[in-house]
Amino acid sequence: MKKQLITLDINDQLYQVAVTPMDILVDVIRKEIGLTGTKKGCGQGDCGACTVLIDGKPQLGCLKLAIACQGKKITTIEGVADPVTGELHPLQKSFLDHGAVQCGFCTPGMILSSKALVDSTPNPSKEEIKRTLAGNTCRCTGYILIFEAIEAYVKARAEGEVK
Amino acid sequence: MGKMYEVSNKYHEYKDYTREFTEVGRSIPRLDGAAKVTGKVQYTDDLVLPRMAYGKILRSPHAHAIIKSIDFSEALKLDGVYDVITGADCPIPYGIVPHNANEHALAVGKVRNWGEGVAAVAARDEATAEKALELIKVEYEVLEAIVDPRESLKRDDLRIHEDAPNNIAYEGVQVYGEPEKALEESDYVLEQEYYSSYVNHAFIEPQSAIADFDNNTGQLHLYATCQVPHYTHQQLSKVMELPMNKIRITVPLIGGGFGGKGVASQADFCSAILSRKIGRPVKITYERSEVFATNNGRHPCYMKFKMGFDKNGKITAVDFNNIMDGGAYAGWGIVVLFYTASMVHIPYMVPNVRFEGKRVYTNKPTCGAHRGLGGVQPRFAMEQMLDQAAAHFGMSPYEIRKLNAAESGYTAKSMMYVPHTEYKKCLDEVVQRSGYLEKHGKLPYGKGIGLSGGYYISGTSYTLYLSYKPHTVATIKIDEENGATVFCGATDIGQGVDTVMAQMAAETLGIKTEDVKVIPRDTQISTFDLGTFASRLTFATGWAIRKAAEKVNAELFPVAASMLQCRGEEIAVKDGMFYSIYEKKKKHVPWSDVVTMYIESNGPLTCTGQFTPPRRKGIQQGGNIGHSPTFGFSAQIAEVDVDLETGKVNVLKITEAGDCGQPINPMSVEGQVHGSIQMGMGQALYEEMKIAPDGKFINPSLHDYKLPTSMDMPEIDATIVEAFDPSAPYGGKESGEGPIQPTAPAIFNAVYDAIGVRFTEMPLTPEKVLNAIKANKAK
């Protein structure tokens, strides 16, 4: 299939890549652009490991055609920490400190899904947190410490301790 | 209590090996955590080597068929295709258990399960490789498939493997004591049949391998998602006909294993064979359907149990007949078979045991090692039978477990020796925390509470081939440039052993965990380790690291003593500082200064420690399997709400108490426990690989194979009971496989409490529950 040049805006940086109309976003991000933080666990929209934010909303990179993502703002896990210092976003720090990370393969998708929630909801309930993560499968943690990490971040933010 | 450990030199007599730990017992976030939350870490599929080709495997659409011919001439003509291999390129069989190795990198002559690899392509990119697969023509003569091991046993006319009459891969009998007589003389004998289901690990990272064969040096470098690099190393050596010193295996980070990556994958071999042929690195990453097709998950078991009790409710005998569905190949099968046998002997005292088991071939993806292997199935049965017996004797399920529970120092009839257990404490803890005794049998219809216990080995006493070598070696290098570096080939699959190794080294060296570097997962750079299975790493690496670190101390203490101008036995090291135990303020010197002084006056400092597990005598056929230096224990209580309209079982809460000895990293222990409960609950209620009568795999996707999601998780109250195993380095033992043992039976016991129906088959689907509720009403 013929390739064409497209431009993707990922983490506030523009990337020009040659893709076919069939190429899915996760493959382009991982293989063409080299941002391997986005993971591929099933390629069928079931596991959520390839979650990225498109215009702030969590989307599955394996169900999106790259060509259809032009002109949109894409955030991958590499775009969550401070772009200048590399310092962890407090939500990332909370995941780390609460033991919400084991093998780490679901973690990028998990963090992006929860980031979309906490960015749009000042004080999400436990139920909202659970619902938000329903499409992100984790096989290591049993989810509980992930809930706790998000709740702790939201609480610290409400108390003005973190941004 | 006196000194707990043999000490390697006099300077340690004053270093306190009590429970006053500095680094051990800290809930340290894992050392690779920051790299994981930022997406910086690299897993195998993230790696790209120069000139790398991409490989794909063509898989059989039939479960049982003779391969008449394979024509790949059209595939070779496709632009961008480098080469194609078939079974003819990999005639040498492999297997994790060498004496019954019968797997091939690609099928030779015949396929025995749906999705078995028949050819592999290396091409410029994945799309080209996929196109090439479509151009390969395979002519099959389809054979009848057998998918039920009970049927398989009767079909000697239809042998899946020619050398396996009646399709029996392996069978064994163990008799301890006089089980028949004991059952006859028992006051109460309970007989029941159970079935445990066919489940997959469903780790989120599919298997991946990159082989880089250098035709100039004859050296193969494999990067792979492998939790047993040593065993894969051996098998690659055999299949590739290369000496082990011509093969190096590097394991990048692993995205979950749970035993599923505890075998060499076909991707490992196919990438290696292709790389040697085309002179380029070759990467093969599985699709999710290939993860299911190559399985290695838990063996379904058809179990017949007889349990005898005396008039007081003490267990007199167990008779256990197990028919295990092994799937198409040998794999870990023989080991799992005898693990199911050994699991009967603990955590309760069973004076007489008869086991008879057969591991049987069927035309299904092969079963193998899966978190808590061999334990989950018999535990599912026995923990329910204990509840049934308790009801017979008018005792509470708690009481009958306490009555029969083994204590520290117990030697089972199978010669399994339990140096330490706090199992009774685990039972007490969950019963108190959950209010079990106030709730059991007293909740309204549809609501229930169930208790269960379990244990798991914390290490293994034997290698899979005859060998007396150490199971783990650790080398600690001390220098000014890096401080302390621990080399140990243990494999972190997500459980966090890299961090735990750093903590244990830091503890003995007297420095901070964050200042220890760990070099793991590389057969060339790291020192030897047997692999990640049998919950062996904390115990085995702990001993090796401690012994190495003690040798380092033996070198550094005299230097520190000279620098501080006091006697060696009067100093200690902690938080990166050597100091006089009498005059700490006046006499102290940084650890790094002592290192500099040592190196300037003595030269480099590198010390090695090792661990070889104790062997025990008096064993029967297969009876050495299950022996372990020590064991971890867990008790759980499930509270459920059965939806009487839909039959759905909602698990509301799990209360858990675990004996993992001294937790090295309590936060990691908590994660292991939660993950175990999630996996146990998945098998109990949702998960099942479905195979059609003709052997076709019906649900090889994470859409149709139902995992517990965030929405399904119950509240979990997990506690680590106060425990310290004096036989363990730093007092710690396993926590990753014990806690999966009680989950399913606790849920089943709770469902019985809720609706009065004893279910004996997993998974407990709404359909089964609803039918039972209707049948109840009809009565």
Write the layout of secondary structure elements.
The complex is a heterodimer of chains A (163) and B (779).
Chain A: E1 4-10, E2 13-19, H1 25-32, E3 51-54, E4 57-60, E5 73-75, H2 90-97, H3 107-120, H4 126-132, H5 144-158
Parallel strand pairs in A: 1-5
Antiparallel strand pairs in A: 1-2, 3-4, 3-5
Helix pairs in contact in A: 2-5
Chain B: H1 33-37, E1 53-59, E2 65-71, H2 73-77, E3 81-86, E4 110-111, E5 117-123, H3 126-134, E6 137-142, H4 149-152, E7 168-176, H5 179-185, E8 188-196, E9 208-214, E10 219-224, H6 229-240, E11 247-250, H7 266-278, E12 282-285, H8 288-294, E13 301-309, E14 315-327, H9 333-342, E15 353-361, H10 376-393, H11 397-404, E16 410-411, E17 417-418, H12 423-434, H13 436-439, E18 447-457, E19 472-479, E20 483-487, H14 497-509, E21 516-519, H15 537-564, E22 571-574, E23 577-580, E24 588-590, H16 591-602, E25 605-611, E26 631-642, E27 649-659, H17 666-685, E28 715-720, H18 743-755, H19 766-778
Parallel strand pairs in B: 1-12, 10-11, 14-15, 20-21, 27-28
Antiparallel strand pairs in B: 1-5, 2-4, 2-6, 3-5, 7-15, 8-13, 9-10, 9-12, 13-14, 16-17, 18-26, 19-20, 19-25, 22-23, 23-24, 26-27
Helix pairs in contact in B: 6-7, 10-11, 10-18, 14-15, 15-16, 17-18
How would you sum up this structure, described in words?
The complex is a heterodimer of chains A (163) and B (779). With 163 residues, chain A is α+β, with helices and mostly antiparallel strands. Chain A folds into two domains: 76 residues, Beta-grasp domain (Ubiquitin-like (UB roll)); 69 residues, DNA polymerase, domain 1 (Orthogonal Bundle), CATH 1.10.150.120. In chain A, 32% of the residues lie in helices and 15% in strands. Chain A is built from five helices and five strands. Chain A has a five-stranded mixed sheet with strand order 2-1-5-3-4, sandwiched between helices. Chain B is of the alpha+beta class and 779 residues long. Chain B is 27% helix and 24% strand. Chain B has 19 helices and 28 strands. In chain B, a hairpin with a 4-residue loop joins strand 9 and strand 10. In chain B, the strands form seven sheets. Chain B has a seven-stranded mixed sheet with strand order 3-5-1-12-9-10-11, with helices on both faces. Chain B has three domains: 166 residues, 2-Layer Sandwich (Aldehyde Oxidoreductase, domain 4); 183 residues, Aldehyde Oxidoreductase, domain 3 (Alpha-Beta Complex), CATH 3.90.1170; 243 residues, Aldehyde Oxidoreductase, domain 4. The termini of chain B are far apart. In chain B, helix 10 crosses helix 11, helix 10 runs parallel beside helix 18 and helix 15 packs across helix 16. The interface between A and B is large, with 58 and 55 residues.
